[in-house]
Amino acid sequence: MRTAAFFILAIASCLFSNKIAAQVNEITPDHVYYNNIRSVKFSQAGDPLSMPMYTIGGGEKLELSFDDMDNDVKNYYYSFVLCNADWTPAPVNQFDYMRGFSETRILNYKLSSVSLARYTHYSVQLPGTNSYPVKSGNYLLKIYLDSDTSQLAFTRRMFVVENKAGIAGFIQNPIAPKLFRTYQKINFEVNTGSLNIQNPFDQIKVVVLQNYRWDNALTTLKPQFINGNILKYNAEQDCIMPAGKEFRWIDLRSFRLQTERVQRSEYHNNGTDVFAVPDQERADKVYQFLKDINGKYYLATLDDYDPNFEGDYASVHFSFYSPEPYAGYDMYIFGEFTNYECNKNSKLSYNGASRSYEGTLLLKQGYYNYVYGLVDKTVPNGKFSTELTEGNYWEAENNYTILLYYRALGGRSDELVSSITLNSVLNRR
């Protein structure tokens, strides 16, 4: 009887684990599920433009912050899920990759003051002393209400690295004449060091991100040459990306002053409307370097207010002039402030009267980068492209982050064993 009971319990446990894994697999990384959640920032503490990555044993801290526009106090909790390089949940028990509590409540919050918009600002530094990862890899950070994972508010990617290998590389122009003026090529090599690698094609995975975006990440790269512990990734067609162009920007650090690229503002008793300077196509314009922050944004004010709980919100109206709509395409505004997603919130509508695409976003005081792009409506799951709206120029300044994953023999997850960020200007050859 005891054996049978144990057998039934084991089956139930497996079914429950599979159900949880399926639920996690359906969750979209870097996605906001609740409309009342705004201004989510997750980065290294003190650097809002960085990736949320820390090194095991390195002592760094990550900082997560967000606003709840309901202007009340809620019980928000967070937890971590270990994922593989492709962001599928790893079949590893949480006790094997976490220490401390499986979930933690966010206790640091502050009600807004000074601003017309009313909200509650939450923040927390990770990893906490009561809950922290001990295994390297990709982690899905989940924020949810009342210790109930079904009430998921939003998710964010987190990276835990344990340096066991090395990466070196540089950026150059592709040799192919058709790509020479519009693409950038990433050449790099990996030193696997003391890693036990029998089959590098299966045990090693490499991901290349352009400006920290995952929608166009390179994920199927294989080494062209192997020389002992050195893996070289320099095949001509394997690691090239459209160069794009410097991001557009808008300065919203003050709603009182007419800051850069603000056409006008309208003030109401319960809020502010800001109208951005109309944009237009620049794919055929001569390249001009303008310092940008590669699609990111940061919160700030010019009025000596704390942007976290004193920064105000405004309805920001964007417009993109186009004599005719792009037939067969939908247009989106794109950047970190839209979670690099193409959805109903970032989609622009064509106004025949003004001959422009138009859209409105609720944004907090700060400095924002963005671009416009198109998605082919005739293609299922069409890819976001800026070729027609922004253009591609080999001179563009971009950051390329290379993530190196390793699967040990018999291992059940992909370890993140090294990373490096190359700049297309500073690391060009």
Number of domains: 3
Helix content: under 10%
Radius of gyration: 23 Å
CATH architecture of the largest domain: Sandwich
- The number of distinct β-strands equals 29
Q: Enumerate how many helices there are, as a single number.
A: 3
**Arithmetic mean of pLDDT:** 92
Strand content bin = 35-45%
Q: Termini separation (Å)?
A: 71 Å
CATH class of the largest domain: Mainly Beta
Short descriptors:
429 residues, Immunoglobulin-like, 5-stranded mixed sheet, 8% helix, globular, 3 helices
Give an account of the 3D structure.
This protein is mainly beta and 429 residues long. It folds into three domains: 28-161, Sandwich (Immunoglobulin-like); 166-243 and 395-423, Immunoglobulin-like (Sandwich); 248-376, Immunoglobulin-like. 8% of the residues lie in helices and 41% in strands. It has three helices and 29 strands. The relative contact order is 0.16. The model is unreliable at 1-25 (pLDDT under 50).
Element layout with pairings:
Elements: H1 2-26, E1 37-44, E2 53-55, E3 62-68, E4 76-83, H2 94-97, E5 98-100, E6 104-105, E7 108-111, E8 120-126, E9 131-133, E10 137-145, E11 152-161, E12 166-172, E13 183-191, H3 200-203, E14 204-210, E15 225-227, E16 230-233, E17 240-242, E18 248-251, E19 262-268, E20 271-276, E21 279-280, E22 297-299, E23 313-321, E24 329-334, E25 347-351, E26 356-364, E27 366-376, E28 399-406, E29 415-423
Parallel strand pairs: 2-11, 20-23, 21-23
Antiparallel strand pairs: 1-3, 3-8, 4-6, 4-10, 5-9, 7-8, 10-11, 12-13, 13-16, 13-17, 14-28, 15-16, 18-27, 19-20, 22-27, 23-26, 24-25, 24-27, 25-26, 28-29
